Structure formats: structure tokens, C-alpha cells
Amino acid sequence: MNVLVTGGVHGYETSGVQGAILFMKTEAHRYLEHFNILCCPCVSPWGYEHIERWSAGAVDPNRSFKSPSPCDEAGAVVELIAKLGLKWTMHTDLHETTNSDFTEFVPAKAARDGHKLSNDPVPESIKPSDCPGAAYARKVFGNRTEMSHSEIKEALGEHPSTAKDLGTMNLEAFERFIVEQHLPYL
Ligand SMILES: [Zn+2]
Fold it and tell me: How many CB atoms lie within 10 A of CB 161?
């Protein structure tokens, strides 16, 4: 069975590169009886060296695994895989920053595009409806459209300090608040 491990597809997610190398050095040998492991530890070396999400051509490698590819780095991996002609059992692609989109991805995207950083801190990729805390809030508050300050405090549970300056909110505003405050697991 063939297993592919990739790291550093996004160069600024540096732990993936280090993790892939460390895995190959210290752990991979334990699995070689059952698996052939191919590792591309740093798919986007320029991005890794410059701690950038995008390639030098400002293309997102992770949106470019196709042929022809708009990104040389992703294109090289696609070509390698095609040449090998193997059947793959698993691909582990090492990323990070899920909880720091607002502090990493959003500013990087704004900088790449020459945009002023938006005041709206909800990343495009996260919809309030994806947030388990918001689902919880909807369950607690049913079909009502507005919550009182004390209800908000109750919904925030172990994070009451974040509620101290809030007045009443409608559910939509509350859902966005949860995402903005990085409280997805209320
Ligand atoms: Zn990534």
C-alpha cells in the first residue's frame, strides 16, 4: 500500500515541514513493513523560506493541484505522482492555522491583494453556520430572534467575561460574535 505525506504546501505553515521531516526520520521505519511512504516535506520551498502562504507568483499551491497548474510547485507534485503511476491508499497533507485564520490567513490575503485589512474579522472560509457554538445557541434559543444580556451570558458559559460589554443581540449577531471571538467550542 502506498502512502503520500506532504508538508509545506502553504509555506507559512512551517510545522508541517518540520513534522514531515521528523516523521520520516523517527517514525516512518515502523510502518515500512506494510506501507511504501513517499514524502514531499516542503512542497512550496519559496513560501517556506519567506514564510508565505502563496508561491513566489502569488498563487495558492493548495488550489493548484491540477494539470496544467498555475503554480510550479503544485504542478511538480502533480507531475511526480502522475509519473509514478501508483495507486494510493492514503494522502496526509500537513497544514495548520485553523484557529488563527484571522491573525494569519486574512492579513496575508489582504497583503497579497493590496487590500486594506477589512474590519470584518470573520474569514470568508468560516460561515457562522459552521460553528458548533452557533448551533448550540440556536438550540438553546429556539426560534426567538433576540437574546437578552443574561441569556447571552448563559450561552457563553465558561466565557462570561467576553459577555460583559454586550447588550441584547439577535441570533445572527451572536453567531458572528462567537466566530469573531474564536469561541467555536462553547
Ligand atoms: Zn494550509
Answer: 9
113: confidence class by pLDDT, cuts 50, 70, 90: confident
What average pLDDT does this structure show over 148-165? Answer: 60
**Sign, CA torsion 95/97/101/104:** negative
Q: What's the 137 CA to ligand 1 centre distance in angstroms? A: 29
Residue 35 lies in a domain: yes
Domain that holds residue 68: 2-113
Do residue 56 and residue 6 come from a single domain?
A: yes
| Residues around the ion ligand 1 (C-beta < 5 A) | 10, 13, 95
When divided into structural domains, the chain yields a total of 2
**Centroid of ligand 1 to alpha carbon of 32 (angstroms):** 27
Give the model confidence (pLDDT) of 119-146 as tens digits. Answer: 544 444 445 455 555 565 666 566 666 6
Q: pLDDT digit string (tens) for 11-48?
A: 989 999 999 999 999 999 999 999 999 999 999 999 99
Angle, in degrees to the nearest 10, between helices 132-141 and 149-156 = 130
Instruction: Tell me the pLDDT tens digit for each residue of 52-63.
Output: 889 999 999 998
- Evaluate whether 52 touches 13 at the Cβ level (below 8 Å): no
Whether the Cβ atoms of residue 175 and residue 127 lie closer than 8 Å to each other:
no
